[in-house]
C-alpha cells in the first residue's frame, strides 16, 4: 500500500488531487508514515500551499527528523518564523537534529533581521557537537557573510578562522563575502593563500573585481585562469558592456571558444545601450540560435532608441520565425512601441494576441495596455483593462488617472484618485503630478489648489519641481498671472526655465505685456542655449511688437548655430507607419507629398481671396 500511495502522490499535479490522496492516506491510517509524510509535505509546498503542509505537520503525532527537516525546508525563501516554530517543536518532541536540520534552518535566515536568531542556532550547533562538521560550518559561514553590516561579517570571519577543517566552499564563501562588500585587498589575500582553487573561486574573483570596476586586475586574473567556462567569459564581457567599452567586449567575444546564446544576447544588448543599432542588428542576425531573451533584447533596443516601427518589424519576424513564444517582456516592449507611434490598430491586435494566448494579466502588462489605449485615445478600452485587473499597483492607478486626464475626462480622473485614496495603495508624488495635470486640463483651479494642499499636509509629500510646474500652468491658463507669479516667488525650490517658460506662455495667451520682460530675462538666465525657449521668447516679442528684441534673439540663435528640433508626426497606412518631419527631405515620397501640399496651399489661398 505504501508503494501504491507513493506512486499516486508522485502523479499529483494540483492541490485538489493532493488533498484527495491525503484523504486516502488517512483512511488507511498511514498519515504518520515515515515514507509518506515527508513526501506529503514537499508536494504541498511545491504546489504553492506551505500552510497546508504546515497543518499536515502540526497534526502528525510522531514526526521524525526527516519529516521535521522537510517541513523546515518548505520555509526556505518564505519565512524564518515558521522554520523556527518547527525547530522549537522538534526540541519539545525531543527529536534530535542532524546536519541537514541546521543547513535548512540557516538557509531560511536571509536578512540582517535574522542575525540574533542565527546566533541562537549557532549556539545550538556548538552545544550539540556539530562544530566540526564542514557541511554545517559552511552554511553558518554563508549565513553570517550574507548578513548586512560589518558585525555579521566579523562573525563570518571568526567562524572561518576557528574552523578545524576547511574545504574549497569555505574559502569561496569568504572571498565572495569580501568581494560583495568591496573588500578587494582581503579577498585577494585569501585568494592567493588558498591551497586549492576551483573554477567557482576564479569566477568569484573575476566577477567581484568587475563589479568593483577594477578591470585591469580582473583581466589579469582572467588571463591566469587554468580553465574558463561560460561564466568566466560572460562576467568579463558584461563588465566591459556596463562600462560602454564595446570594442573590448567584442575583442573578448571573438576569442570565446564556444559562444552561448547568453553571450550573443549580451553583445546585442551592449550595442543597444550605446545606441549602435546597426551593430546590434548585425550581431542579432549572426546568432546561430536565438531564445526569447535575444528577441526581447533586439525589440527593446529599438524601443529605447525611439525606432518604434523597427521594433514592430522585429516582433513580426519573431512571430513568423515561430521558434520562440513571446513572453510578457516582449509584449510590454511591443505595446510601448504602439503607444509611441499612436498606432491603435497595432495595439488592439496585440491585446487580441495576449488574450488568445492566455497571458497572465500581471501589473506591468496591464499597465502597458492601459497606457497604450489611453495615449491612443481609446479611453473605454483602457477602463476595461483597468477594471479586469486583480492586482493593481500605484503605477496602475497613476496610468489610469493620467490617461483619463489627457483625454479630457478630468473629473473622472479626480474621482478615480479619490477612490484609490479610500481603497487602493497610498498615493505617492508621481500620482499627484497626474492629478494636478487633470486639474490643469480641466481648468479646475480650486480643485488643483485643494489637491496641492492635501499632498503637502495630509500625505506629507514634499512638492517637486513638476508639482510646482503643474500649479503654475493651472493658474496661468486660468489667467491668474499675478497669483501664478506670487506662487513662483514663494516656491521652496528655485524655479527652473520650464517654470518661467510656462508662465511666459500664459502671458502670451492672456496678453500680459507687463510680465513679459521680467519673465523673459529669467528664462535667458536659466537656459540661454535652449532653442525651444529662445523661439518662444522670439515669437512672444514679435506678438507684442518688440521687433528689436526679436532680431536680437534670432541673431543669437544663428550665431550659436541653434536650431529648434523639427516637429514630427506619423500616420498608419495598413501595416506600415510613415513618419514625417517639418521640412522633411528624407522621405522616399517627398516629391509627391510636397506636390500635394502645394496644391492644398493654392486652394486655401484661392478660397481666402474669395472671402
Description:
With 611 residues, the chain is an all-alpha fold. It has helices at residues 2-10, 15-27, 36-46, 50-58, 65-74, 80-92, 99-107, 115-127, 134-146, 150-162, 168-180, 184-193, 199-211, 215-224, 230-242, 246-255, 261-273, 277-286, 292-304, 308-321, 328-341, 344-356, 363-375, 379-388, 394-406, 410-423, 429-442, 445-457, 465-477, 481-489, 497-510, 513-526, 531-543, 547-559, 590-610, and strands at residues 568-573, 576-581. The protein has a two-stranded antiparallel ribbon. It is globular. The mean pLDDT is 84.
Overall morphology: globular
Poorly predicted runs of 5 or more residues:
none
Please tell me how large the radius of gyration is: 33 Å
The separation of the N and C termini measures 100 Å
- Tally of helical segments: 35
Number of strands: 2
Strand adjacency order, main sheet? 1-2
The structure class reads: mainly alpha
Question: What is the helix content?
Answer: over 70%
The mean pLDDT is 84
Strand content: under 5%
For the largest beta-sheet, the strand count, sense and barrel status come to: 2 strands, antiparallel
Amino acid at each position: 500500500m505504501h508503494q501504491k500511495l507513493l506512486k499516486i502522490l508522485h502523479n499529483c499535479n494540483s492541490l485538489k488531487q493532493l488533498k484527495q490522496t491525503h484523504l486516502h492516506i488517512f483512511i488507511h491510517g498511514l498519515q504518520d508514515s515515515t515514507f509518506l509524510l515527508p513526501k506529503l509535505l514537499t508536494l504541498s509546498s511545491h504546489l504553492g500551499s506551505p500552510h497546508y503542509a504546515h497543518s499536515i505537520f502540526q497534526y502528525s503525532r510522531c514526526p521524525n527528523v526527516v519529516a521535521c527537516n522537510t517541513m523546515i525546508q518548505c520555509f526556505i525563501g518564505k519565512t524564518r518564523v515558521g522554520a523556527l516554530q518547527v525547530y522549537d517543536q522538534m526540541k519539545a518532541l525531543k527529536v534530535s537534529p542532524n546536519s541537514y536540520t541546521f543547513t535548512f534552518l540557516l538557509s531560511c535566515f536571509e536578512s540582517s533581521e535574522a542575525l540574533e536568531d542565527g546566533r541562537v542556532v549557532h549556539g545550538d550547533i556548538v552545544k550539540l557537537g556539530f562544530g566540526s562538521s564542514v557541511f554545517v560550518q559552511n552554511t553558518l559561514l554563508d549565513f553570517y557573510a550574507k548578513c548586512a553590516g560589518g558585525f555579521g561579517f566579523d562573525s563570518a570571519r571568526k567562524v572561518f578562522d576557528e574552523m578545524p577543517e576547511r574545504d574549497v566552499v569555505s574559502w569561496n564563501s569568504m572571498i565572495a563575502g569580501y568581494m560583495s562588500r568591496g573588500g578587494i585587498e582581503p579577498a585577494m589575500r585569501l585568494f592567493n593563500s588558498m591551497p586549492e582553487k576551483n573554477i567557482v573561486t576564479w569566477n568569484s574573483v573575476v566577477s567581484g573585481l568587475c563589479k568593483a570596476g577594477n578591470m585591469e586586475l580582473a583581466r589579469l586574473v582572467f588571463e591566469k585562469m587554468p580553465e574558463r567556462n561560460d561564466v568566466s567569459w560572460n562576467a568579463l564581457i558584461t563588465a566591459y558592456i556596463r562600462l560602454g567599452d564595446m570594442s573590448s567586449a567584442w575583442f573578448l567575444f571573438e576569442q570565446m571558444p564556444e559562444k552561448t546564446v547568453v553571450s550573443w544576447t549580451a553583445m546585442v544588448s551592449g550595442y543597444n545601450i550605446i545606441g549602435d543599432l546597426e551593430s546590434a542588428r548585425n550581431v542579432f542576425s549572426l546568432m546561430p540560435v536565438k531564445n526569447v531573451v535575444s528577441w526581447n533584447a533586439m525589440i527593446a533596443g529599438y524601443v529605447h532608441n525611439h525606432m518604434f516601427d523597427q521594433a514592430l518589424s522585429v516582433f513580426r519576424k519573431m512571430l513568423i520565425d515561430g521558434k520562440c513564444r513571446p513572453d510578457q517582456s516582449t509584449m510590454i516592449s511591443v505595446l510601448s512601441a504602439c503607444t509611441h507611434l499612436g498606432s491603435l490598430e497595432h495595439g488592439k491586435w496585440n491585446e487580441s494576441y495576449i488574450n488568445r494566448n492566455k497571458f497572465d494579466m500581471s501589473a506591468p502588462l496591464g499597465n502597458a495596455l492601459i497606457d497604450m489605449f489611453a495615449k491612443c485615445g481609446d479611453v473605454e478600452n483602457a477602463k476595461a483593462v483597468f477594471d479586469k485587473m486583480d492586482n493593481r499597483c500605484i503605477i496602475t492607478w497613476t496610468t489610469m488617472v493620467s490617461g483619463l486626464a489627457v483625454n479630457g475626462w478630468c473629473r473622472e480622473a479626480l474621482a478615480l484618485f479619490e477612490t484609490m485614496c479610500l481603497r487602493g495603495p497610498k498615493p505617492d508624488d508621481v500620482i499627484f503630478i497626474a492629478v494636478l495635470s487633470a486639474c490643469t486640463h480641466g481648468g479646475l483651479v480650486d480643485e488643483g489648489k485643494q489637491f496641492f494642499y492635501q499632498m503637502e499636509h495630509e500625505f506629507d509629500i514634499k512638492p517637486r519641481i513638476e508639482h510646482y510646474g503643474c500649479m503654475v500652468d493651472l493658474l496661468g491658463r486660468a489667467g491668474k498671472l499675478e497669483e501664478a507669479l506670487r506662487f513662483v516667488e514663494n516656491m521652496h525650490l528655485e524655479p527652473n526655465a520650464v517654470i518661467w517658460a510656462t508662465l511666459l506662455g500664459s502671458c502670451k495667451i492672456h496678453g500680459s505685456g507687463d510680465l513679459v520682460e521680467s519673465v523673459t530675462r529669467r528664462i535667458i538666465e536659466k537656459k540661454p542655449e535652449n532653442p525651444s525657449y529662445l523661439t518662444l521668447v522670439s515669437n512672444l516679442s514679435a506678438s507684442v511688437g518688440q521687433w528689436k528684441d526679436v532680431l536680437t534673439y534670432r541673431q543669437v540663435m544663428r550665431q550659436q548655430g541653434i536650431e529648434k528640433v523639427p516637429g514630427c508626426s506619423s500616420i498608419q497606412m495598413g501595416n506600415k507607419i510613415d513618419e514625417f518631419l517639418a521640412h522633411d527631405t528624407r522621405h522616399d515620397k517627398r516629391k509627391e507629398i510636397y506636390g500635394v501640399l502645394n496644391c492644398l496651399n493654392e486652394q486655401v489661398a484661392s478660397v481666402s481671396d474669395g472671402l
